[in-house]
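Exercise 7.
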Amino acid sequence: VQLVESGGGLVQAGASLRLSCTASGRAVRTSAMSWLRQAPGKERMFVASITGIVGLTSYADSVKGRFTISRDTAKNTVYLQMDNLQPADTAVYYCGASGPGYDSWGQGTLVTVSS
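Solution. The predicted structure, written as tokens, is:
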């Protein structure tokens, strides 16, 4: 599966962004989709996920109540709506897809939040 992220950018604290992850080769509806992020000098960390089929969502404590993961099966795309962004959210955000026999990641999209 190939994943292409988009939607990153430079915003001020308190602003919103919506990241998109468009998949090809596998359906997002049947894949476990996730977002991770990697801040400068830090390890890649879990942000949010949505399970295949049922679509159960899970979030890191640091983004609960501010970020929302969703999917559009018609567009084969997963989104990460990020509200009330803070400088601590600055990172490269990666989209992942996994299922039986595959575990793929996109190239990442940079989100920079200024104070």
